[in-house]
Amino acid sequence: MTDQPRQLSLNAFLHDTGHHEASWRHPESSVERAHDIDFYVELAQRAEAAKLDGVFFADIPGVWAATPYRPTAHLEPITRLAAIAARTERIGLIATASTTFYEPYNLARLFSSLDILSGGRAGWNIVTTQSDVAARNFSLTEIPSPEERYVRAQEFVDVVTKLWDSWEDDAILADRESGVYFDPAKVHPIEHVGRHFQVEGALAAPRSPQGRPVYVQAGSSNDGRAFAARNAEAIFTAHQTIEDAQAFYVDIKSRTAKLGRNPDHVKVLPGISPFLGATEAEAKELQHYVNSLTVPAYGLAQLEGLVGVSLAELELDEPVPAELFAGSGDVLDNNRSRLQVVANIVERDRPTLRQLLHRLAGARGHNVVAGTPLQVADLITEWFENGAADGFNVMPPLYPQLLDAFTAQVVPILQDRGIFRTEYTGSTLREHFGLPRPESLYSGGARPETGIDLAGAARA
Ligand SMILES: Cc1cc2nc3c(=O)[nH]c(=O)nc-3n(C[C@H](O)[C@H](O)[C@H](O)COP(=O)(O)O)c2cc1C
Hints:
- The chain is α/β, with parallel strands linked by helices.
- It has helices at residues 37-49, 77-85, 104-117, 132-135, 146-164, 222-231, 242-258, 280-292, 296-307, 330-334, 336-349, 353-363, 373-385, 401-416, 429-433, 454-459, and strands spanning 9-14, 54-57, 92-98, 122-127, 172-175, 180-182, 192-193, 198-199, 214-217, 234-237, 267-276, 367-371, 391-394.
- The chain has 16 helices and 13 strands.
- Flavin mononucleotide (FMN) is lined by residues 58-60, 96, 125, 127, 129-130, 146, 218-221, 223-224, 236-238, 271, 335-338, 393.
C-alpha cells in the first residue's frame, strides 16, 4: 500500500431528506423526491466531487406501519447503488444486506455484480437485523437471538467469501480459437456443508475487480465486536464522546491483532451528524428549529422499541429514569450497543424525556454536533489524531443542504491540514480505504475448508 501520511476516510451516509427524524418537515426538504433515483445520484455526485470515500445506504426489510411520522419504504439499496454506479466514477458504493434474511448465494452474486459494473467500488455492510418487523416478513414470528444471528452470520460470510473467490482472477480465457471460454482448473465448486447452509457453487459471476467487495460491519455489542474483529474491514459505530470512541477503538484494534489481522486494515468510522452555521449560535438555532419539528409520538415509539417497555406514563418534561436501561431481556439484548449509548446519555446528562427525544431525533444515538465549519473540523481532527477514529460516517441532518455545507466548508479545512485527499489516487473502494486486494482462497491450487462449522471453530 502507499506510504502517504495517515488519511481520514469519509463516507456519506445517505438517508432520504436527512438523518434528523423531522428533516422532511423542513420547508426546503426534498421529501417529494424520496423515491426519485436522480435525487440520490445527485447526492452521490456531490460526495464524489468532494472526493469522499463512499456513500452508504442502510436498510431494514420491513415497514413500521404503526408510526406514519417519517418517510419510509425506501428503494432497495443495491438497486439504487447500481443506478448510481452508472452515473459516477470513483465514489465507493456501500449497501446494507442482512445475513438473517438473505441466502449467501444470492447476496454474493448481487454484490459481485455491483462490484463488476462499478469497476470495483462495492462494499457490503454486514448486519444481522435486530427487528421483529423484518422477521415477520420472512416466515418468522420474532427475530432470532443475537447469539444465533451472529453464528449464522459467520457461516454466511465464510460461504460468501468462498463464492467470491470461486473464480480465480484469470479463469476467463474467452479463446475463440480453441472454443474454450474459461479454464475449468480455475473455477471452483465450493462444496460447503455447514450448520446453516449447503452451497455447491461456483458463483454465477466471475471474480470482481476488488477480488471481494469491502466487508463493512455495524454491530458494537460483545458478539458484534468479535464478529467485526474477525471479518470487518470497515466498522460503522456510534459514540457520543471521544472517551467512549477511544475505548471502542482500542478494543477493536486489539481484538483484530489477537486474531493475527493487521489493525490498519480495519477502519473504525463513528457517525457524526453536523449542524453547520457561520457562527455556533446560528448552527444551534438551526438545530433547535429542526428539533421543534419533531412529532414526539415518533421518538417515543423509537425509544420504546429500544427499551422494550411503554413510556406512556412518563412526563415529557420530567427527567428520564435511569432504571429504564437496567436489566436484560430479548428486546434489551437485541440492540445492546445502541441501548448503552442512550443509557450513557441519561447517566451523564440527566435529560428530560423531551430533551432525550431531541438528542435521539438527530441521528439515533450517533454524535450530533452544532457549530462552525472550523469547530466541526477540529472535532474530526481531534478524534482522528487521538485514537478514536480512522474516519467518519458523515450523517447530515438535512439533505442536501448540510451535505453541501460539509463538503464546501469542512472538507477544505481537512484537506489544508493534509489529513484528507484533494484528489482520488485510486479507483476502487479498497484503494480509497487503503485496504489490500485479497488473493483468491483457491489460487495456487489451495482448497479452503469445505464442511465444518467454521464459526464454532473460530470461537473455540
Ligand atoms: C452506522 C450504522 C449503520 C447501521 N445500519 C444498519 C442497517 O442498515 N440495518 C440494520 O438492520 N442495522 C443497522 N445497524 C445496526 C447494527 O447492524 C446492529 O444491529 C446494532 O448495532 C446492534 O448490534 P449489536 O447488538 O451487535 O451492537 C447500523 C448500525 C450503525 C452504527
